[in-house]
Write a structure and sequence with these properties.
Number of domains: 4
Largest sheet: 7 strands, mixed
Distance between the termini: 79 Å
CATH topology of the largest domain: Rossmann fold
Strand content: 15-25%
Structural class: alpha/beta
Number of helices: 15
CATH superfamily of the largest domain: P-loop containing nucleotide triphosphate hydrolases
């Protein structure tokens, strides 16, 4: 087994048998940045980079690591290590080298001169995955915006090999072809960025209209959040299987797969549950450590769906030894979005995969929130009907905690109010009196207030 800080062969780890571009992974543990507390943390980060490469249909064949006081400003790695990577790329016939951090434009240019193959950093890799997975018009616009913002400062490396043409003597020399093309590309990108922002503003207005319609209907919004590949889409599909009787349930499901960022587009589905309760369930894009700032900004309008939620379901892969770190990433991202105050159920999914050494509670256990707190934990396996039933009970109890009980006397001339309450409240005792329909209901406070206004 080779020393960890050096070159480590990882060839043959892909299992799907597809032809794919061979790539070399490179990471630096910069001690001055205090990002990784242990060598194990650093290794986990590279494991995640490997999974990202596979999600982009690449074949990681080797990874190279170096421990430094700080990353090299010119090359990210030291010059000797860069020469070693170049030799490995040639030996493996690798088509690309991927670095575990965001590289500066000058680092990319300098590395490509030495390595003689394309250089990709962690940010570009995630952007490429998002570009592959985007399906809706909104997500495609968001990804294109983020990618152009990333590419614009890095254009110069694409044209530096063009020869500069000499011009007249003096200060008014003509520009070379490379510089001319660089200016054209920058203007093209600026023009496209302006177009994308206009289109996204329009899409954002459409999304706001949809949100207003949902608020008027006053169905609670429950949002699935959490680290990528924790099982959010699996839980949504299991909920639809359990509570949807229509034959078209398969058409309402979202894509699920055991890979990073399998689902990118935000999806909202209505879930009809027992006791006459319905809610909207939203599946959002997964989070990841060091999610590129450009993507967070570009997807802000989509992620704002989370800030409108009445309840958050944070999904955690209980079988992952780095689950506590994933919880922290989710917490920080939610705080950044302004959703840190929303009541939450933390779902420890895949509890059936946990071995005894992990000391996780048995699945099916609920840890109730203590007084003054709005969060609780639940341990489940999304593949089991019993777990989905248990989760349903937890969701119902959370949503009903803010409910109120009201008695209404509804004149026969205002049948619309009765219909409204039948659809949006849990109706108890009902009597048909001479003055109208007497109804005792339990419902959301906003539903009750709207019914009272309709009766005025």
């Amino acid at each position: 087994m080779p020393a960890f800080f050096g070159a480590e062969e990882i060839w043959g780890r892909r299992s799907d048998g597809e032809e794919a571009e061979k790539v070399i992974l490179v990471g630096v543990w910069a001690l001055s940045e205090n990002e990784f507390h242990t060598e194990e943390d650093f290794r986990h980060s590279l494991d995640e980079l490997e999974d990202l490469a596979k999600a982009c249909r690449m074949d990681p064949c080797c990874r190279v690591t170096q421990q430094l006081p700080s990353v090299d400003k010119a090359l990210y790695v030291r010059s000797g290590k860069a020469e070693e990577i170049a030799a490995l790329a040639d030996a493996w016939e690798a088509g690309r080298v991927i670095f575990n951090d965001t590289l500066s434009p000058s680092q990319i240019r300098n590395l490509q001169k030495i390595l003689k193959v394309p250089v990709t950093d962690r940010t570009r890799l995630i952007l490429d995955i998002f570009e592959r997975r985007a399906r809706t018009r909104e997500s495609r616009l968001q990804v294109e915006l983020a990618k152009l913002q990333y590419l614009k400062p890095r254009l110069i490396g694409m044209w530096e090999t063009q020869n500069r043409q000499g011009g007249a003597s003096g200060s008014q020399s003509s520009k070379g072809e490379g510089e001319k093309q660089l200016e054209i590309d920058r203007r093209t990108i600026d023009h496209r960025l302006a177009e994308l922002r206009r289109e996204l503003t329009e899409v954002t207005r459409e999304r706001e209209t949809q949100r207003k319609k949902r608020k008027n209907a006053r169905l609670p919004l429950v949002a699935l959040v959490g680290y990528t590949n924790a099982g959010k889409s699996t839980i949504m599909n299991a909920m639809l299987d359990e509570w949807t009787s229509t034959p078209a349930v398969e058409d309402r499901k979202v894509f699920e797969a055991d890979m990073l960022f399998a689902t990118l587009d935000t999806t909202v589905r209505r879930v009809e549950m027992e006791r006459g309760r319905a809610f909207l369930l939203s599946d959002t894009v997964g989070f990841i450590h060091r999610l590129p700032t450009t993507l967070v900004e570009a997807f802000k309008s989509t992620l704002e769906e989370v800030t409108q939620a009445d309840l958050l379901l944070q999904v955690v892969d209980a079988s992952d030894p780095y689950a506590p770190e994933h919880i922290e990433v989710t917490k920080n991202t939610l705080t950044e979005l302004g959703a840190g105050h929303i009541p939450m159920i933390t779902i420890f999914n895949k509890a059936d995969l946990c071995d005894s050494s992990m000391h996780f509670p048995r699945r099916g256990l609920r840890e109730e929130s203590v007084a003054g707190e709005s969060n609780e934990n639940i341990y489940i396996s999304a593949k089991e009907t019993e777990s989905i039933r248990l989760l349903t009970d937890a969701i119902l109890e959370k949503l009903e905690r803010g409910d109120v009980e009201r008695d209404f006397l509804i004149p026969y001339t205002k049948g619309a109010v009765q219909s409204w309450l039948m659809e949006n409240a849990r109706v108890g005792n009902t009597e048909y009196l001479e003055a109208g329909v007497s109804m005792h209901v339990k419902c959301d406070r906003i539903v009750a207030e709207k019914a009272e206004r309709m009766l005025q």
